[in-house]
Amino acid sequence: MESIRTTCAYCGVGCGILATRTGARAVEIKGDPEHPANHGRLCSKGTHLGETVGLEGRLLHPMIGKRQASWDKALDLVAKRFRQTIAEHGPDSVAFYVSGQLLTEDYYVANKLMKGFIGSANIDTNSRLCMSSAVAGHTRAFGEDVVPASYDDLDTADLFVLVGSNTAWCHPVVYQRIRARCDAGAKLVVIDPRRTETADEADLHLPIRPGSDVALMNGLLAHCRDNGLIDETYLARSVSVPDDFWDKVGEGSDLWSVARACDLPPADLRRFFELFAAHPRTVTLFSQGVNQSLRGTDQVNAILNVHLATGRIGKPGASPFSITGQPNAMGGREVGGLASTLAAHMDFAPENVARVGRFWAAPTMACKPGLKAVDLFRAVGEGRIKALWVMATNPAVSMPDAGRVRDALAACPFVVVSDVIAETDTSKFAHVRLPAAAWGEKDGTVTNSERRISRQRAILDLPGEAKPDWWIVTQVARRMGWRTAFPYDRPAEIFREHARLSTYQNDGARLFELRGQAAIGNQAYDALEPFRWGGEAFAEGRFPTADGKARLVPARQVALQEPLPKWPMTLNTGRYRDHWHTMTRTGLSPKLARHRDEPLVEVHPDDAAELGLADRGLARVSTPQGDSVFRVTLSTGQRRGELFTPIHWTDQQSTGGRTGLLPRPLVDPHSGQPGFKATPAAIAPVAAAWRGFLLAAGEVKQPDCLWATRVRVAGGVLYELAGEGDPAQLDALLPKGERIEALDRARGSRRLAVLKDGKLAAALFVTREGLLPSREWLIAQIGEAASPAVLAGAPPGAREDRGPIVCLCFDVGLKTIVQAVASQQLTSVEAVGAALSAGTNCGSCRPAIRRLIEQNRSAANAG
C-alpha cells in the first residue's frame, strides 16, 4: 500500500512519519525523509508507534454511567446538562479541560464554544502544566508568544546551553542535531540539578541548586556587561530597558555570590561565562526544568534577557529556544487553548474581545481570563464549577496534588470525558464517556516547537463508534442552540476559519497570521506541506509591541526554601525515555515497556546509606500532599538531599509510583504553571516479606498486594510483585490448566507454571530470601511448548545473557555491548553502531553506549 505522510504522536519536535497499513489494525512506521523537522529520523517512541494502534482498552461506544448509549442520547444529555447548569448558575459554572494531544481544529472549536458562545474563559489545557511559563515569558519580552528559533539554528550554532532539559531522552531527534554539530566542534553546556544522559555528554555540566536559575542567568548577564559583551547598538534600536534594570541585575550577581546561590564551584561557573563570551552563536534550549517552577516565568525572562542584551536573537545559530513537550502544545496556544488567552494570539483587551466577537458573531463573549488548571480544579472541588468536560487528558494522574483533584471530580455534579481509552484514572469519575479518535485515525494539523504547521492524516478507519474531537464538540454546540455558528463537516473548514481569524483586522500587530491559508481549498488542505508561520522572527530587530521593541524584564532571584525538619528532601519529577504521559499509548508496546519497566525513585547512594534504603528495594516517598511507594535505584547523578520520580504510572498500571499525588498545588504567579520540580519530601524504606513476578498470556487482574506493576510483554503481561502475608493468594489469578510446581522451603521460594495443551500459559515465581531468574527467557516461552524444566527459569546449558536492553530500536542488551567493546576493541559510539547497529537510529542510547566504552577504557587502563 501507499505510505501516508503524517506526524508523530509524541513530543513537540513534530517529526514527519511515513505510515503504511499492513493490515486492518497494523501499521509500518518510518521517518519521513522530506519533513524538515526530522529528515527521516525518529526516536524510539516514534519508531514503535505501530505497536500502539491496536484496539486494546479502547472506548468504542458512548457510555452513560456504565451503560452503552447512542451518540444522540449521549450528546443530548451533555448539551442539556451544560445548558441547565449555565441557566441556573451562570457561564462560569462550567469548564473545559483540554490537551496538547488535540489537533488544532479540535482545539479551535472547543475554544470558540466556551469563550464565544457559552461566554466563559474557563477552558484550560494540560499545556498549562508544561509550557505556560514560556508563553508568559515570551509575551512579557516580545509582546507575543513567539518562539524565535528554528531547528536550522541547531546546524549553525557554536555553543548549546541546555537548561532544565534532558534532551537526549525527551527530544532525541533535536539532540541528534545538537550532537552532530558538537562532533563538528560546537560546545555543549548542560544546566540541570541531575546528571542525566544529556549531561554525561556535555563539555560542562552545572548541577545547580533547584530554583536558582535566575541567579545563574543574572550572573551571566552581569558578566557580559562587565566584559563589554552587551550589544549597545541592538539595545538602542530594538530593546526597551527599564531605568533600574542594570542596578537590579547587579545585586548579588558577582561570581562568588552566584556560585554560592547556585551551589556550584566558582571555577565551573567562570568556565560557563567564558564559553558564552567566546561563542556569539549560542542557542539556549530550555524546557520543563525551567518552566515547571514557582518562578518559571522569571526564569524564562532571565534567559531571554541574556539573549536580547547580547543581540543573540534573530540571527542564524543565535537564539533562545523553548522546546515544547506535547505534539500540539503550540497549536493550542495559537487558538487560545489557555484560559489566559483569547484566540489567534490575542489577549482579553476590550478591543480584542470585540474583534473576536465580531468575527465569530458571538452572542456571549468572555470578557476576562478564566480559571487556570490548578484554580479550575480547586473551583470544581469547592462546588463553583458544576459541569466539567475533560478532553484527551488524565488530570487525576497528571495534576499536582492529584488526590485532591480526584476528590473534586468525585464531587462534581456532571463530568464528561472524551477519550480514546475506556478506563483511566479520570474516566472512572465520568457520568458520560465519549469515544474519541486516536492518533492513527485523526485528520487535521499540529504546530511544532519551531512554529511549523504540519498535517496529521488518518492512517486507519475509525473503529466502533469513535469520532473526531472536533465533531463531538460541534455536535454538542449545535444541540446547545448554536447550529449556524458550528457548521463544520470537515477539518479543512475549521482550519480555514482559524486562518481567517488570524488575519482579521491584523495590521501586523501580531506576528501570528496565516494569510496564505485563509482561502485554502479542501484539496489543497489535504495536500498541505509543512510550513513555518512568522518566517525568521525578529531577524529585522522588530517586535510585535506598540513601539516595535522587545523588553528586558527584571527577574530577581528569590530566597530558596531550606530543607524542612519533617520533609528534608527535595522531590524532582520528570519523564522517562520510552514512556509518554500516562502510558495509555506507550504502555501498549512490549518494546517500549522494557527500558524502565517499574517506577523508580532515584536516590544518591550516600543518602540511601543514611536512610537505610537498599538498591532495588522499596521506599515510600511522602510529601504534605500524599505518598506513594517506588522501587529504589541508586544514582550518583542525583544531588545529595534530592529525589527524582517519573510521572507516568497510574492506577491502571501499578499499586505505586503515583507521582501526581506528591507535588504541591502551588503555581507561578504570572503563568499559573505548577512547580513540579522542587517539592519538600521525605523517604523511608518499605519492608516486603516476599518478592516475585507473575507472567501470563493475555490479561490478568492487577494483584492485590503491596507492590504490583504491570508491564506489557510480547504475548502477554508481566507483573513485578512484592508483598506481605501469604503470597499463595496470587494463585487465584492464574488461568486454568495443568499446574506444575517447585518449592524451596529453606529460602521460602515457590515456582509455579500453568500449561494449556502443553504450552506455557502463566508462571508465578515468588521468594522470601532466594534469587529470582531473569524474566527475558520466560517471556519468550509464553505460548510455547513447555516442560517442568521451565521452573528453572532458564534453558538447560549455557545461554547468552544480553542484560538490560540499552538500544531499544535494535534490541541490543548491555552485556552484548560490553562484550563487543572488549572483544573487538571498539573505541567509539560509531564503531559500536557499525558492529551492532546500536545507537544508529534514534540516538537516545548513545550517551549510555559512550559511558560503557569509557568504563571499558578505564578498566583496561587500571589493568
Structural class: alpha/beta
Helix content: 25-40%
Question: Treating each run of at least 4 consecutive H or I residues as one helix, how many helices?
Answer: 28
Percent of sequence in beta strands: 15-25%
* CA-atom Rg in angstroms: 27 Å
Strand order, main sheet: write it out: 5-4-16-15-14-6-7
Tell me the total number of β-strands. Answer: 34
Task: For the record, give the distance between the C-alpha atoms at the N and C termini, rounded to a whole number.
Answer: 56 Å
Mean pLDDT: 95
Largest sheet: 7 strands, mixed
General shape: globular
Give the low-pLDDT segments: none
Q: What does this entry look like structurally?
A:
The longest helix has 19 residues, at 71-89. The chain is an alpha/beta fold. It has 28 helices and 34 strands. A hairpin with a 2-residue loop joins strand 28 and strand 29 (716-723). Helix 3 packs parallel to helix 15 (329-335), helix 4 (132-142) packs across helix 14 and helix 17 crosses helix 19 (402-411). The radius of gyration is 27 Å and the shape is globular.
